[in-house]
Amino acid sequence: MSSWLITTTTRQCIHVRAQKHRETSTDDEFDEPADPGHSVEEIRIQSQQQQSVRDAVEQLPERCRQLIEMLYFDSKNPSYEVIAQTMQMPVASIGPTRARCLDKLKTVLRRQGIR
């Protein structure tokens, strides 16, 4: 499962980077193209780091995993109100619960050797 995610993320990063470069470039300037081997390697490393974080999130208790996924991985970017309804918790509890869950995530990442 992780290999397709790494490949997809790598390709998406390359696409976004190329699009950003086109948007910031002007017609009257000529830049040397970036070393594609170097940037692809950086993207691969970043993709592996992202996968490590996702793997660590999977190790969290269900409530923390659900909250972290809704806050940071859900492409719909749900509001705190939607998150509160989904998780059956007060809106005011989301911030403190998020902080505790992120502390747990840091602990898992440290156990994996990721700082």
Describe the structure.
With 115 residues, this protein is mainly α. The protein has helices at 2-24, 36-58, 62-73, 80-87, 91-111. Helix 1 (2-24) crosses helix 2 (36-58) and helix 3 (62-73) packs across helix 5 (91-111). The chain is globular. The model has no long low-confidence stretch (mean pLDDT 80).
Give the N-terminus to C-terminus distance in angstroms: 24 Å
Q: Averaging pLDDT over every residue, what do you get?
A: 80
Low-confidence parts, pLDDT < 50 over ≥5 residues? none
Sum up the overall morphology in one term. globular
Beta-strand share of residues:
under 5%
**Number of helical runs?**
5
- Computed structural class: mainly alpha
**Helical fraction:** over 70%
Q: H/E element string?
A: HHHHH
Biggest sheet record: none
The beta-strand count equals: 0
Round the Cα radius of gyration to an integer and report it: 18 Å
